[in-house]
Design goal:
five-stranded mixed beta sheet
Length: about 210
């Protein structure tokens, strides 16, 4: 597990909740100290409907790259649910300093054994919000080497209606580049550390 924690901050770089969010700071521990790895503006001020909150939260998650820990002064139900379904470690904290960041990592390490035993790795795409699905192929194939990407995805892509399928993988599976799928799928990619983030949608065919 990497030691990266995304924290909700206000315009003065102080810990805040999602309602007062001005920007996100991603902290990373380099082995000796916590440093700011990334900082970017983000807020929910113009968001009103439940669907907008879900979609906006998913957009935020894409900006977090390979960071899978979120900490905030307070996280409301809809935002919490999206992070939870994307398998984030979620923390509500009352202060922001190195000791708190260390405590978050310690808590995760202490619970990691129980999490690994009690939460199975998804073997097929999981719906995170209406029509949008997610699957971490790297985790899947580490946990279940016998399940190929084709076995995990082909029936879903062929038979399931979806708006977008987001994958975490080391490379695009070769079978998705075949003419059969190139003519019916739009595939976009971007790098995230050593992983590849892949978004798949179906083309509108006449």
């Amino acid at each position: 597990m990497n030691k990266k924690i995304a924290v909700t901050c206000d315009k003065d770089n102080q810990l805040t909740d999602f309602a007062s969010l001005s920007h996100i700071i991603i902290f990373e521990n380099n082995g000796t100290a916590w440093k700011i790895r990334k900082r970017f503006p983000f807020n929910f001020s113009s968001i009103k409907t439940a669907q907008e909150i879900r979609d906006y939260t998913r957009n935020l998650i894409l900006k977090l790259d390979d960071c899978k820990i979120i900490a905030s002064g307070s996280i409301n139900g809809l935002i919490y649910n999206v992070f939870d379904r994307m398998r984030f470690a979620i923390f509500e904290i009352d202060s922001l300093d190195d000791n708190m960041l260390d405590k978050i990592i310690t808590d995760i390490y202490n619970s990691l054994h129980d999490v690994n035993n009690n939460v199975p790795v998804a073997t097929a795409p999981v719906e995170t919000t209406g029509g949008i699905y997610y699957l971490d192929l790297i985790k899947l194939q580490n946990a279940h080497p016998d399940i190929s990407s084709k076995k995990a995805l082909r029936a879903f892509i062929d038979n399931s209606p979806f708006i977008r399928l987001d994958l975490v993988c080391s490379h695009i599976p070769a079978w998705l580049k075949s003419p059969e799928y190139e003519k019916k799928l739009d595939i976009t990619t971007r790098n995230s550390g050593s992983s590849l983030l892949v978004s798949i949608s179906k083309k509108c065919l006449d």
